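From the pipeline queue, job 12 of 40. The input is one protein chain; the requested action is below.

Action: predict structure.
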Amino acid sequence: MKTQTKITQDKLSPKDAHAILVEGNKRFVQNLKVQRNLQDQVIETSKGQHPFAVILSCIDSRVPVELVFDQGIGDIFSVRVAGNIINEDVLGSMEYACKVAGSKIVVVLGHTNCGAVTAACKNVKLGNITSLLSKIKPAIDSIQSKDKEMNDDEIEEVAVKNVQLSIERIRAESPILLEMEKNNEIEIVGASYNVSNGNVIFFKG
């Protein structure tokens, strides 16, 4: 598998980029990895990088995005933060990836059995974690009924809602990315990774 170049990146549409990720995840689930010479990719990317995607995911050790989508060195900008939450630095990273470096798709990737979401649902308060988890609260408020303790199914609903609200925040707080999406220069999409079977489900709309 060749490393992404400026030429191959320019030829890709957002739809193409989406398809590459879908196909890569199918290979991952089937344990059919593309053969890559990673040392060659290190050398080829040493002079520059042209990733086709930027993926915001959780720090969870079970969700390494390059492996999950069967991609190599130089293919993906990986932004990782507990609970795949949005803040100014994350938005700036996405804007750099798309507007400056030419990526064609922005993916917010949540996952099942998310520790950060679970902690937020259980109202954990601890140091700087408290501030981080507070960014998940809007998703909790949209799912939780009254003040009763949330069950496992509701917590999984919060994880999905958290991704959807992160997408909304990207569009609301980044005029650059919103304009690029309207001009069909990029796609902005949410998805969820299942830690039990390796499947990634992309959300509609």
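Job complete. The CA atoms of residues 17 and 124 lie 37 Å apart.
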